[in-house]
Amino acid sequence: MIKVENVTKQFPDKLALDDVSLEFPKNQTTAIVGPSGSGKSTLLRSLNLLERPTSGKMSIDDLNVDFQKEISNSQVLKIRKRFGMVFQEKALFTHLNVLHNLMEGPVKVKGVSKEAASKQANDLLAQFNMTELADRYPYQLSGGQQQRVAILRALAMEPEYLLLDEPTSALDPELEAQVLRVLRDLAEQNTSMIVVTHNMDFARKVASRVAFIDNGKVAYQGDTNGFFESKEDRIQKFLGAMTF
Q1: What is the mean pLDDT of residues 217-241?
Q2: Which residue stretches, if any, does this entry annotate as coiled coil (predicted)?
Q3: Cα–Cα distance for residue pair 210/228, rounded to 1 Å
Q4: Has this prediction a pTM greater than 0.85?
Q5: Over the Cα atoms of the chain, what is R_g?
Q6: Contact yes or no for 220/34 (Cβ under 8 A)
């Protein structure tokens, strides 16, 4: 379980997060939704300390962080080891083929043997019907294929929580569907995922919980059905803007 309490993030020109308190249960998918510029990505990046909140606290199971106190490098490392991160940009290692993209982290960071890392990478590719991509280089992949490989690369590190920041925003609808099917499969396997998304259909069908962030504040947190059936004016207005 991840808990953030009274978290604030002040940039020089903007209050990005305003006294945010949220819970992210293990073995569930939480969709973070809200208008552009509302603080969704800042919140996600704060969880693994890519952004350092100005104040507030966070606990990740047995790890506790007070953002008003100095955070040691060893504490940062302990926290980041718990997370896998997938960004909007695929950012694969261009000089490595798909198989070695999946092996690089376990070998270089975790000290896993090349043999064990290769077996794990091949198992992941087989699990998601992507074995035929093993020998290809990133330039030989479509955008959807690159993003699916990026997800598997994060999974190869065996994170406790998988963070995804609008992983399909740069893809056309067909390629987006390919990636969303992978995330649906992971959700069905009870992978602990936190996904920033503008895709309300994905949030409705896949997420167990929704956190609605509006102007840096938590406007809703709870089960998915409760969000989509809410009578709150702000939520209805937001959902209404998603249809035409």
Answers
A1: 95
A2: none
A3: 9
A4: yes
A5: 18
A6: no
| Domain extents in the chain | 2-82+160-240, 92-159
Nearest to 194 by CA among 234, 160, 163: 163
Reading the block at residue 8, the tokens are: 């604030």
Residue 167 pLDDT level (bands cut at 50, 70, 90): confident
Q: What is the 3-state secondary structure (H, E, C) of 15-68?
A: EEEEEEEEEECCCCEEEEECCCCCCHHHHHHHHCCCCCCCEEEEEECCEEEECC
Distance, in Å, from the CA atom of 15 to the CA atom of 38, rounded to the nearest integer, reads 10
Residue 88 has pLDDT above 80, yes or no: no
Q: Which of 90, 83, 81 lies closest to 111 in space, CA to CA?
A: 81
CA 18 – CA 12 distance, rounded (Å):
14
pLDDT value of position 21: 98
- Give CA–CA dist 86/195, Å, rounded: 9
Q: How far is the C-alpha of 42 from the C-alpha of 45, rounded, in Å? A: 5
Q: 160 exposed, middle or buried (CB, 10 Å; 0-12, 13-18, 19+)?
A: middle
Fold of 2-82+160-240: Rossmann fold (3.40.50)
The answer to whether the Cα torsion of 185, 58, 153, 74 is positive or negative is negative
**Is 210 within 8 Å of 233 (Cβ atoms)?**
no
- State the Cα–Cα distance between residues 126 and 162, nearest whole angstrom: 20
